[in-house]
C-alpha cells in the first residue's frame, strides 16, 4: 500500500502543484482587471466539465482496477485482459456520447452567463479522449503497478499547463484578442494534455508487453467468463464509482447553482462582486486545497485493488488490518498537511493571487484547508467500501450527505455568505463519513485502541506544527516589514517556503522522536533519524 500510495501521491501532488502554479503567470497574462472574471468563467466551465467527465468515465477505470485485481488473485490474467478490451468499447462509446451531450447542452448550463458556452464547447473535446486514457490507467492499477498512471498524470498536466500559457499569451499579448477566447483555449488545454498522457501509457505498455503476455500464458486459464457477464460486472461495479467519484464535484455544482441566487436574496452585492467571491472560494481556494485532497485520492486508488484481493481471498483479518492501516496513514499525512496549509494561508494566497481581497481570500483558504480533511476522508473511506464490495451502502450514505448539504445550504449561505458553502460541505461529508465508518466497523471490525492512540499523537503533533508555522508567518512578516513590503508576491513566497519548512521540520522531528513515523512508514525512516541525529 505504501509503495502504491507513494507513486500515486507523487504523480497526483506534482500534477496538483502544476495545476495551482499555473495561476501565477496566468494571472499576470490576464492582468488585474480581467483575471477575476476570467477565473470565475474558467471555474464555472470546469465544474460542469468535471461532473460530465466523471459520468463519461463512468467509474470504469476503478471498476476495471478492482476486477482485474480480483481475477489476477485467481491467476486468471487472461480474463483481466478480456475485461480491459470490453471496457475499452464502453469507454469509447461513453466518451463520444458524453462529448455530444456536453456540446449541445452548453446553452442550458450557462447559469445566466453566455460566455460559459465556448468554454464548455472546448472542454467537450477532452471528454472524447479522457475516458479511454483513464480506463488504461485502471488496467495498470489492477496489477498494482501505479507508476504508469502517476507519470502519465504528471505529463498530462505539464502539457496542459504549457498550452495554457502559450495560448493565453498569444491571444492576449500578441494578437490582442478576446479574453473569452483566451479562457476557452485555456480549457481546451485539457484535451491537449490528455493526448500526451495517453501517449505515455501506450509507451509503458509497449515496453512491458512481453511481461503481461507471459502472465497470461502462465494463467490457470480454467475460468471462462462470457462477454455479457463481463459487461455486467463492469457496469455493476462502475455505477457506484460514478456517484462516489463525483462526490466532491456534486457538492461544487450545488454551490455553483445556488450560491448566486441565495446571495442575491441575502445581500445587495453587485454581480461582479458575486463573481469575485465565487471565484475566491470555488476556484482560488479549491485549487490549493485539492493539492491536499489529492493525498487522500492517491491513497484511495492504491487501497482499492489491495482490499479487493483480500476480499476475494476471504481474508477478514487482512481487510480489517488494511482498513485500520489506511485510516492511520490517512491521518498521518492529511491532518498535518491540512493544518499546515491553514497556518500559511495568508502568504500562500498572496503568492498565487496577489493582494486583491487578501484578507477575505486568506481566511477562505484557511477554512477550506480544514474542510479538506472530511473531504479527503470521504475519498478514502468510500474507496474502502468499494474495495470490499459495499457499493450500495456507500452510495446510500453519500446521498444522505448530499441531503444534509442541500438542507443546510440556504440558511448557512444566507447567514455566512461564502463561508456558509464551506460549512455546509463539511456538514454533508462529516455525516457521510460517520455512517460509512460505522458500517465498516460493524462489518469487518477496526482496531479502535490502535487508531485512537495514533490519532491523539498525530493531532497533537499537527497542532504544535500549526502554531509554530503560524508564529513563523507573523514573525517573518514583522521582520521583513522593516526592509521591504512583506505582502508582495515574492516576499510572500519566501515567507511561505520558510514557514512551511519550519512547521514541516517540527512535525517530522516529533513523529521521528516518538517513533510514530516508524510504525506508520516502516523501519526505513531510521535512515532519516540517523541523518538528523535523533535518538
UniProtKB/TrEMBL annotation:
One GO CC term, this protein: plasma membrane
Keywords: Cell membrane, Membrane, Transmembrane, Transmembrane helix
Protein name stated in the entry: Transporter
Record's bilayer topology term: Multi-pass membrane protein
Membrane spanning stretches: 20-42, 48-66, 87-106, 118-140, 161-180, 186-206, 241-263, 288-307, 327-344, 364-385, 397-414, 420-437, 458-484, 490-510
Primary residence: membrane
InterPro entries referenced in this protein's UniProt entry, alphabetically: PG_synth_SpoVB (IPR024923), Poly_Biosynth_Transport (IPR050833), Polysacc_synth (IPR002797)
Pfam family of the protein (one): Polysacc_synt
Gene source species: Fructilactobacillus lindneri
Compartments in which it is found: Cell membrane
